[in-house]
Amino acid sequence: MGKALFSIRITRGCLLLLTVFIFAAFGQAIFPDSFYFPVTYYDYHTNPNLNNVVVPILNTDFETQGYCSGRTDPVTLNMVMDTLSSDRKPILKTIADCNDHLNDWFRPSGACSPSDLCIVKFDPLTGHWSGLTPYIQNHADPNETFPAQPNEWMYSHSTIYPNMNNVVIYDSLLFKPQKNHPGTYYFQRDGKPDLNTGIPTPPFLPIDNRGFGPEGHDIPALSQLHPGPGNFSFAMEMHQQFTYFNKQHYVFEGDDDVWVFINGKLVTDLGGRHAAVTDSFNLDDLAPALGMIVGHKYWLDFFYAQRQTNESAVRITTNMLLVVDNFDPLHLRVSGIIGNCDTGNFSATVYDNSGLVK
């Protein structure tokens, strides 16, 4: 059952016609076939441990053989604070799993001081940074062997933490509708059968042949689904202002570090270099503690880091990423003289109980 919010001034003779419009509105759900969600990637150098020969460590956070112990299955909790920084980034809480420079993972190299004061500014609505310039390969650096590609950005080659130099890449993820679940969409790259087709999906390696490219321990091929070398050492973030309605849900499955914040508060804590794990929530269960009210807008902030070969998996299933504004809300308008009626105006936006436009 849906509900309509409207105002009306009309005579009795026109009521039947407008009633037909209302019931037609209730019977029509408007969902896009798919949509692209903007994300920001940060590509990092990897520890150049090739063929099991340990060479000097380049990056102590990404692909960390020789620096700290192996995987931390199932997860490492409390790596980040329960709230975000003023620029909507995770804040390092505990050094627990090769995460010494976590405060730098989602910021352009060289643009922020050790106290995380940044010269450039981040816009979470677009996922873009101000003040960056196109990335140009540094031929003097033996670690930069991959040619620069379009739409790759950098602030500078950091001299404070040269091992944390990164390339910023703007891109998007394609979300598709989940069959038999109206309003729910998913993104899947996890080597498992696709939720809709059953065909195995490739691993999540979205910036192969971009940024610094595959290097060091990235080089070995993964599988028949991904026969070439993969660019593993990267971080990703995505942000959304969404409208809270009842029955919204979120499911994540994958590796490695994942943190999700709702209304600025941590709700998913899957830190560490681990095999694929699953976490989910129904927003109605969390809303009271998060101080959320139905119909109000709040932030969703998602952070992911791929820090160790040779697995990379992401699957996100949710009905939260499409806000009401994205649905082209249905507005019914009737004005003018109908028969012998008075001039009337009618407008309505119709929602079902989950908040989706009908």
Report on the structure:
This protein is mostly beta strands and 358 residues long. It is built from two helices and 17 strands. It has helices at residues 15-26, 283-290; strands spanning 3-8, 35-44, 122-123, 128-129, 133-134, 152-154, 166-177, 185-189, 234-243, 249-255, 257-262, 265-270, 277-282, 297-306, 313-318, 334-336, 344-351. The strands form three sheets. Strands 2, 5, 6, 7, 8, 9, 10, 11, 12, 13, 14 and 15 form a twelve-stranded antiparallel β-sheet that branches. The protein has a three-stranded antiparallel β-sheet with strand order 1-17-16, with helices on one face. Strands 3-4 form a two-stranded antiparallel ribbon. It is globular, with a radius of gyration of 24 Å. Residues 1-28, 50-55, 324-339 and 349-358 have low confidence and may be disordered.
Q: Can you tell me the residue ranges where pLDDT is under 50 for at least 5 consecutive residues?
A: 1-28, 50-55, 324-339, 349-358
List the total number of helices.
2
Order of helices and strands: EHEEEEEEEEEEEEHEEEE
Q: What is the typical, i.e. mean, pLDDT?
A: 78
Instruction: Please report which band the strand proportion falls in: under 5%, 5-15%, 15-25%, 25-35%, 35-45% or over 45%.
Output: 25-35%
Percent of residues in helices comes to: under 10%
Give the number of DSSP strands. Answer: 17
Protein structure class: mainly beta
Distance between the termini: 10 Å
- For this entry, what is the oligomeric state of its chains? single chain
Question: Radius of gyration over alpha carbons?
Answer: 24 Å
Report the principal-axis shape.
globular
Specify the biggest β-sheet: 12 strands, antiparallel
